[in-house]
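Our consortium's second objective concerns turning raw sequence data into structural hypotheses that experimental partners can test. To show how far this objective has progressed, the report includes one record in full. It was chosen at random from the queue rather than selected for favorable results. The single chain below, 243 residues long, was entered without modification.
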Amino acid sequence: MKKILIPTVLCTALLFSQNVSHASEINNVQTHQSQSIETIVIEGKQITSEVLEDNEELRKVKVTSGEEVTIATYDKVNNKIKVEEAEKKAVTIQPVNQIQSSKNELNLDAAAKDNVIAEAEDDWFGYGYQISRSDKTFKWKIYSPSASTTKKENSNNKSELVDFRNSVDTLESYQKEAYAVLGTTGAAVVAELLAAPATLGSSGVIAIVTALGGSATAGYKVWQAYKARQDCEYRFESAWNNK
């Protein structure tokens, strides 16, 4: 199994002060930000992030998204985040700086690049595909963080393979959008998400981002990518099981 290193940064350097009040609209996301409270409205749903405490040792935020309420505390000294979601057991997340991927098990042949007609992989979780063509046959090499396989396209599996390809493309698109608004917090956020439980709700993911100093808008973009990962896993399993 291949482990791909991602850059690490000193998380304390990522925190920034929010000393201005302003209203704006970014990609249909309405935002209002004050010194300690930021509110965004997405498709009529209001999400509010409030900084409860911020000092040299910790940054504590509260995020309310619909009926979801989450408090995240970033321990700046020990570089870990405690996430407390309503009616769930609190979890402490220690950042992971390596992405697990089974891509290497496929032995993708660089010399055969001329036959490759499409390929993509996400930057955070380790999903991807490579499609090559030989005569009239399409060969798919698909992989997830924990498994990989090669499939010859046929009438029985084409739909599942295409669905997996679309899910990877969607995940990659959300990640690019997230990076665009995360700025310098990007590497730290990804390191935390790699260690976070897959059951986090939207307020939990947004709380992690805002605890590290990112905006609620950035948190929502990260949530879209985080949720898209679940679809990738489902589509991969469907393609894996279909002969």
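The partners drew two points from this record. The first strand starts at residue 2 and ends at 5. The longest helix spans residues 216-241. Both points have been shared with the crystallography group to help prioritize constructs.
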